[in-house]
Design goal:
26% strand; single chain; elongated; 11 helices; alpha/beta; four-stranded antiparallel beta sheet; nucleotide-binding; ATP binding; ATP-binding; 2 domains; 297 residues; six-stranded mixed beta sheet; Rossmann fold
């Protein structure tokens, strides 16, 4: 369990993180989402004792991170896969971690197999690794102590599609065994595939949070008909906002309301359903638009 209460960080006149509160629960993957620069990494650094908060606090397994005995055995952390000693081999990096945590040497071999680094790759220096290999090594280091909690910042960076699928499966199985996973990303689709709960942050503030199912229900409806212009006009006349899309229309209304209006006006529907991931992505982009480098359209 991770509990964050009123976490705030101020640098001079800049509020980087503003009164952030949420929980990441055992047996669930919590996606921590926001554009680059939204405050995700600063929050994670405060959770793990690397950056002192201006106000508020965070606990992991009921304690401050600094109060955990042998923290690597309880919390696996990956904040920056590039922050590894480039002169050491992958095997040496994990061996040092294992010795620090009091783990047997065979745990290193076991973890190398889990993250898909071959014996030959484990003997190479980290400076010769691709970003994807560094990510695998960083995830391996986080898993080394068989912790109850994982805190991972942008772990899919540099992974190819097969690597991303591997990571999703790894995190899902970890949560299904009762582990707590907090996974940050600026890419909704990446996290949506694996997360149970979502926390969306923009300009250092939480803009929406809840279970994925709850947020999907609020993502609206997609519909298409034999006459989308007539359907859009009928919905607008009924006081229901409409956005035209390439494949039909999108509206925040429930599918039953759209179907009812279409039936009243004799409009034949060829598609009607909850917006799902596409609607959730639109919600995410709109909620965090002010903190994005790109303009939401």
């Amino acid at each position: 369990m991770i509990t964050v209460e009123g976490l705030t960080k101020v640098y001079g006149n800049t509020v980087s993180v503003d009164n952030v509160s949420f929980q990441a629960k055992p047996g669930r993957v919590t996606g921590f989402l926001g554009p680059n620069g939204a405050g995700k990494s600063t929050c994670m650094r405060m959770m793990t004792g690397l950056t002192p908060p201006t106000r508020g606090h965070a606990t992991i397994l009921g304690k401050d991170y600094s109060k955990l005995d042998n923290p690597g055995r309880h919390v696996g952390v990956l904040l920056d896969a590039s922050a590894q000693h480039v002169g050491r081999t992958g095997h040496e990096v994990l061996t040092i971690g294992a010795k620090t945590m009091g783990l047997p040497a065979d745990r290193v071999t076991e973890i190398l197999d889990v993250v898909g680094l071959t014996p030959a790759e484990a003997k190479r220096r980290v400076g010769d690794y691709s970003l994807g290999m560094r990510q695998r090594l960083g995830i391996g280091h986080a898993l080394l102590g068989d912790p109850d909690v994982l805190i991972l910042d942008e772990p899919a960076n540099g992974l190819d599609p097969a690597g991303i699928r591997w990571m999703r499966g790894l995190l899902r199985s970890y949560a299904e065994r009762g582990g707590t996973v907090l996974l940050s990303s600026h890419l909704l689709h990446e996290v949506e595939q694996v997360a149970d709960d979502l926390v969306m942050i923009g300009r250092g503030r939480i803009v929406r949070q809840g279970s994925k199912q709850e947020l999907l229900r609020g993502a609206g409806t997609n519909a298409a008909s034999t006459d989308d212009a007539a359907l859009a006009s009928a919905l607008q006349a009924a006081g229901i906002p409409v956005q035209r899309t390439q494949t039909g229309i999108h509206t925040p209304a429930e599918p039953i309301d759209v179907g009812r209006v279409a039936a009243q006006h004799g409009i034949v529907l060829v598609q009607l359903g909850a917006a799902g991931g596409a609607g959730l992505e639109e919600m995410f982009l709109n909620l965090t638009a002010a903190d994005s480098r790109e303009v939401a359209r």
